[in-house]
Structure formats: structure tokens, C-alpha cells
Amino acid sequence: MQTPAQTAPSLSQASNRPKVYIPREHGATAMLLTPIFSVAILARTWHWSEVSVLLAAFAAMSAKDPAVLLVRQRFLWKQRRPDSFSALRWLLGWSVVLIASVLILLETWPFKAFLAIGAGVAAFGCLAIAVNLKNRQRSTLFQIASAAALTSTSLATCISAIGTIASWCWWFWLLTAMQASAGILVVHARLDARIALRKAAAATPQFRRASQAALGLLLCAAFAATILRRIWIALALALAVVGYAYDLVRQKDSISLQMPLKTVGQQALMLSVLYSALLIAGLW
Predict the structure, then answer these.
(1) Are 222 and 234 in contact (CB under 8 A)?
(2) Under a CB-based contact definition with an 8 Å cutoff, are residues 122 and 116 in contact?
(3) From CA 133, how far away is CA 71, in angstroms rounded?
(4) Which H or E run contains 169?
(5) Which of these, 127, 128, 224, 263, is most buried using a 10 Å CB contact count?
(6) Nearest of 111, 125, 114 to residue 52 by alpha carbon
(7) Where residue 12 falls among pLDDT bands split at 50, 70, 90?
(8) Backbone dihedral region for residue 208 (phi beyond 0: left; psi -120 to 50: alpha; all else: beta)
(9) d(C-alpha 183, C-alpha 214), whole Å
(10) Measured distance CA(187)–CA(88) in Å, rounded
(11) Count of CB atoms situated within 10 Å of the CB of 44
(12) What is the crossing angle of helices 26-42 and 140-151, to 10°?
């Protein structure tokens, strides 16, 4: 048996290990990647540049955290942090992947489409860093913008597959962004409820009210899809409404609020995959 003195170095080494900068948020990762695979199926054809879309999306998402850390160090902290070297190394690595993927897309995409998508991604990237610098990343409007940005990988995949954005892809993006927005708001409502539980105080109503509004919008869309006889799409929207409404109800239970966030993320991932599968059936 090891003595405390023998185990101390190993614990110290574990705590000093450089941070690995890869996406760990199941819900956000699903919002980014699920549209890529869904549109690849709906396009009914395949082009090798779709792999570049996948790599570019994953690299951009992975580069966000080290970029934010380094920008904070430069403009806020004004001093070097122990993990800054690791962050710089990961940022450079993901940047190489991102640049290589972008160069491939530049060669294979229509130039106007490349400029439009590229400008949108660059603008949102700058916005995300600025919002994080000001600690405004919990803004409701920013969360909705994040959902739209993450799910826009569907548009990029469609361009790679067929050279343009088909009408059905615009609908897929809209419906996916609506679902993703509701999911983000519901998760933030849960986080607020968890914080309130620890402090024995009432949770702030901001994200709960926004979640309820988002669910109302999804419900209206489900009714519209039913009237238009797009049954699979109506089912997808109804599934999202029921799933997120159930989670809002569970948030009133203190035991449910103690559920690990990893489990919450996995459940969000499962709901997102089922939702996308029903959308594929409806848009096929």
C-alpha cells in the first residue's frame, strides 16, 4: 500500500497535466454535427469536400476555448497563466486543421457561397469572443444566435454535396435552429435552478420564460405542419415540445436537479438525433 507521501506526487502530476481542448458539451456538439450527417443523407449524393465541412466545424468549435483564454489573458488578466502555453499549442493545432479545411472548401465551393458562409462564421466567431470577454455569454439573444450558428453546418454541407443550398435545406436549418434554441434555453433554465437550489433561493425566471416561449413557437410550428400534412415534421416538433416540457417540469424536483450535467447532455443528444431522424423522414 502506498503512503500519502508516495501518492502526493502522482496527484500533483495529475493536477498539472495540460488541459485537452476538445468539445465536451454533448448538446452543443450534437447541434454542430447532427445537421452535417442529416443533410448528407437528405442530399442523396456525396462529395468528398463534406469531410472538410466536418473537420472545419469541429476545429472551429474546439478552437473557441483556447482562443477565449488567450484573449482574456491579453486584455483582462494582463499576466501569463500556467495553462496559456497549452492553450496556444491547441489553438495553433486546431487552426492548422481549420485553415486546411477552408482552403479545400475554397477550391470546391462556388466563390459567392464561400464568401457568404465565411463572413458569417467569422462574424459569429468575433462576436463569441467579445461576448465571452464581457462575460455576457449567458445572454438569451446570444444563446439563440449560437443555436443558429451551430446548426448552420447544414447549409455548408448542402453546398458541398450539391453546389448550392436547396430549398429543403433552408427549412431543415430553420427547424433545427428552433429546436436547438429551445434546448439551449431549457438547459440554462436547469443551470439556474441548480444554482438556486444550492443557495436556497428562487431561481431567476429569465431562461425558464424564454424556454416556455420557445416551446410555444415549436408547438405552433407543429400545428402548421399538421395542417400542411407534413406528419413526420409535426411529429419531430411534437417530440421536441414534449421532451423539453418534461424537463422543465423535472426542474421543479430537487432530486432531478442533482442529475449529473453529463447525463443531461446525453439526453439532449438523444433527443436531437431522434428529432433529426424525423425531419429526414419528413423532408425526404
Answers:
(1) yes
(2) no
(3) 8
(4) helix 167-199
(5) 128
(6) 114
(7) very low
(8) alpha
(9) 9
(10) 30
(11) 9
(12) 40
pLDDT for residue 56 is more than 90: yes
| Residue listed under C-alpha cell 483582462 | 76
pLDDT score of 267: 86
Q: What is the DSSP letter of 243?
A: H
pLDDT at position 82: 76
Task: List the Cα angle 111/116/118 in 5-degree steps.
Answer: 90
Can you give the pLDDT at residue 85?
A: 84
d(CA 31, CA 34): 6
Cα separation of the two ends of the chain: 62
Question: Given the C-alpha cell 489553438, which residue does it identify?
Answer: 91
Q: How much of the chain is helix, strand and coil, in % rounded to 5?
A: 80, 0, 20
Distance, CA of 149 to chain centre: 8
Mean pLDDT of the chain: 87
Q: Is the dihedral of CA 54, 146, 120, 284 positive or negative?
A: positive
Does residue 273 have a pLDDT over 60? yes
DSSP state of 18: P
Rounded Cα–Cα distance for residues 58 and 45 (Å): 22
* Distance, CA of 205 to CA of 198 (rounded, Å): 16
Chain-centroid distance of CA 172 in Å reads 16
Instruction: Please give the residue that has the higher pLDDT: either 194 or 1.
Output: 194
Per the listing, cell 462574424 goes with 123
pLDDT (average), residues 116-145? 87
- Rounded to two decimals, what is the model's pTM? 0.86
109 Ramachandran zone, left/alpha/beta (phi>0; psi -120 to 50) = beta
Residue type, 178: M
